[in-house]
Design goal:
With 203 residues, the protein is α+β, with helices and mostly antiparallel strands. The protein is 63% helix and 9% strand. A hairpin with a 6-residue loop joins strand 1 and strand 2.
Length: 203
């Protein structure tokens, strides 16, 4: 999707409705700074606000994502292209998230070992030694929590038995035996347990 084109289209539609950025922002309960970012192509409207924005501007979501009013002849084709583009963007975002997960996991582990080594070999009071080790474990478990949360929501798990792809609950991911990003879980569709691999695409 062309963010600059979409931004210019939002600005044109806003002006047609005789609305200032401030007035449009008030109708959507957001800041005029967000409107400015959309119109300059720096960001796109969040999915949670797209329907309200389109309603105020008198356009369809498909028009918004295309950056122009779509004719009925091209409607289905443009809709399909927009859906494919959104799927592609989600997959790219999930891939980036999984890279962040690895970074968080490595960083949390390094911090834990560094603090344990520091507390073990550097001369200091027992109180400070205990505080360092406790802090190390707190940071480690906090990092693990966020890393696991990212793994849960980024992409899907594919059932080995029926092929169903889904996003499991945090509890299911947390308590499942695993080898890397492959986890032994129960599929919500076929109800069978299997080693399920992390995949980026829904199909």
């Amino acid at each position: 999707m062309d963010q600059v084109k979409i931004g210019k289209f939002i600005a044109e539609c806003r002006k047609k409705e005789n609305l200032t950025q401030m007035q449009l922002a008030e109708k959507l309960n957001i800041t005029d700074r967000a409107i400015s970012k959309w119109e300059t192509g720096k960001s796109l409207p969040d999915s949670s606000i797209m329907l309200d924005l389109c309603d105020v501007l008198g356009i369809s979501v498909n028009d918004l994502l295309c950056g122009e009013v779509v004719t009925m002849d091209n409607y289905n084709k443009e809709l399909e292209n927009n859906l494919l583009e959104m799927i592609k963007q989600k997959e790219q975002a999930d891939k980036r998230l999984l890279s962040v997960e690895v970074f968080i996991g490595i960083t949390a582990t390094v911090v834990l070992f560094a603090m344990v080594l520091l507390a073990s070999f550097v001369q200091m009071s027992n109180g400070l030694r205990i505080s360092l080790m406790v802090l190390g474990f707190i940071l480690f478990f906090a990092g693990c929590f966020y890393a696991l949360r990212i793994e849960q929501v980024a992409g899907y798990y594919a059932c080995k038995e029926c092929g169903h792809r889904y996003v499991p609950t945090y509890k299911a991911v947390n308590f499942a035996p695993h080898m890397g990003r492959t986890r032994y879980m129960r599929c919500p569709q076929c109800e069978k347990k299997s080693w399920q691999k992390k995949v980026l695409s829904k199909d």
